[in-house]
Amino acid sequence: MRWTTETRYRMLLEINNAVVTRTNREDLFQALAKELRKHFAFDRMAINLYDAKSQSISYFAAADGVQPGGGLTRHSRPLADGAIARMVVQSRQPIIIDDLRRYTDLSSIGAMVEAGLNATMAFPMLVRSRILGSIHFSFRSAPEHISELTEVLTDVSRQVAIAVDNMMAYTELEKLNKNLEREKDFLLQSSDDYQQDEFFYTSAAMAGIMKTIQQAADTDATVLITGETGTGKDYLAHCIHNLSVRRSHLFVKTNCPALASSLFESELFGHAKGAFTGASDKRLGRFELAHGGTIFLDEIAELPISLQAKLLHILQDGQFERVGDSRPVQIDCRVIAATNKDLQEGIRAGTFREDLFYRLNIVSIHVPPLRERKEDIPLLMKQLTLIQAREMNRPEPIYSNRAIECLCGYPWPGNVRELKNLVKRLVILRAGDRISADDVEKILESARPQGQRVSDELASLRDSERQHIIKALAKTRGVLGGKRGAAQLLGLPRSTIQYRIKKLNIKPENYLSRFSSSKT
Ligand SMILES: Nc1ncnc2c1ncn2[C@@H]1O[C@H](COP(=O)(O)OP(=O)(O)O)[C@@H](O)[C@H]1O
Ligand SMILES: [Mg+2]
């Protein structure tokens, strides 16, 4: 008997001590080979990892000792190519061959014999009845006491299997962590535009909205924010998150139309490894990323109808399934949705689920366009100019009262976003200048988008303003000022009316005479 119970036990303990602290494969493998050599001589040692899904094997680390067929690759190869490994993996039993020359018709064994290896002992690596791969010892000539050695190495291979399993779990975790860190960085960066103290309003409408937000923030109620583009929906969603107890977790924004529809589901819900071509790793979806925090679904009207059902399911049960994985994932996140579309219209057209609408619309916030809260415009101009000038380190442009009036009369189809861009342009091009109403008109004219729709809208707005003033003038018989003047009738300062009359090319006397003599 070469190995007493005691020496076996000590050997296992020493192997264990040598490998537990290793954090990479090569280190672990080298430590193991060195430890085993103290107890018996072998000419080659190799560990194969088995991947059940692809039915392939790959080396765990560079093999130790003799290399049959030249070097060895780290690429995975079909299980069939490793004749002995295949036998071990399939039978889950040790394979002991004391004379390999009898099996040279198998190509991998032929290569071993050519390299001078004539005997081999291969063991399965099993952890909790899961097969991880195989461990191989090869010899130039068959070792002595082969049946006793088989017993010992069966114990050793159990130990090695645990070490290898731990190592794989460790690297998998590390990779997952790295992915998470990367996604977290990305998400934190992407919310840079949010500056907590840079939101301005004086209108009663916006004050009401801010009050609603404060009341709703600390509940987990779903919020639906509607309003034209550029009215501040993103900002308000952020604001809700930051006022809530969820603020230390992530605010995960997802732009519904920006994602290709085939990837949308896995982007939102994640996928299991191998769920589809290219899914080489398990991936967390945005819902899981938002766990504990808030998920913001922007432009919700564009969510494909098939995913609307899944979203409804999450909202109702707080759970969902990853793509390619049927186990439900429990989730705790607040949902905020936003859209510039009319969802009621979507419901009528059959592109939006009514039940989802009601489930989202627990707290509903409608942000009015800037032209319906004109009193915010002077304040926004002033404050945003201040901020921009400071940021660009330039003197502020100064606006005349007329210039501000003119800005208040503009319909702002792009709302605050458009106003902010105008301010940026002014700070760059007209730093420190006095800005007149004429300047403003010119700038608005040149900045106007080429789109037909917007210019049509503006044309008709101009037209109706013109008609409005003409009617007032006709009523007052061309009188502008005083108690019975057009200015009083329209509720505007006389100077503004004069300015608009000139701008819109209205001749008061003409309209007066036409109105009193003949109807047009
Ligand atoms: N009341 C406001 N005060 C200051 N900045 C605002 C205000 N409303 C909107 N903004 C700014 O206008 C831009 C557009 O707002 P955003 O929230 O993205 O609009 P939406 O999501 O409705 O299109 C952002 O840069 C935002 O900071
Ligand atoms: Mg937005």
Structure description:
It is elongated and about 125 Å long. The longest helix is centred in the first third of the chain and has 45 residues. 49% of the residues lie in helices and 14% in strands. The C terminus is likely disordered. By secondary structure, the protein is α/β, with parallel strands linked by helices. Helix 1 packs parallel to helix 5 and helix 10 crosses helix 12. A hairpin with a 4-residue loop joins strand 1 and strand 2. The chain has four domains: 167 residues, 2-Layer Sandwich (Beta-Lactamase), CATH 3.30.450.40; 170 residues, Rossmann fold (3-Layer(aba) Sandwich); 77 residues, Helicase, Ruva Protein, domain 3, CATH 1.10.8.60; 72 residues. Strands 1, 2, 3, 4, 5, 6 and 7 form a seven-stranded antiparallel sheet that branches. A five-stranded parallel sheet has the order 9-10-13-8-14. It has 20 helices and 16 strands. Adenosine-5'-diphosphate binds next to helix 7 and helix 15.
